[in-house]
Amino acid sequence: MRKLTKAEEEERSKLQARVLSSPDTLEEAEAILRDLERWLKDHPDDDQLLGEGEGLIMLREALKLIKRPGS
Description:
The protein is an all-alpha fold. The chain has a domain at 24-66. 73% of the residues lie in helices and 0% in strands. It is built from three helices and no strands.
């Protein structure tokens, strides 16, 4: 990954904390994933955040199952 600016380092650090935070709601998980997608469009070689985001995707899918009507 290329060298990040100070502002990018701060943004990445905040995003990483959010990705690892285990959100309680589907809406929170989806908002974090949107922000992660934006980050990865600009930083496609950030393998660490990409991998950490996979766990968040699994959590989002579980939250969808919980939220599904009639369950």
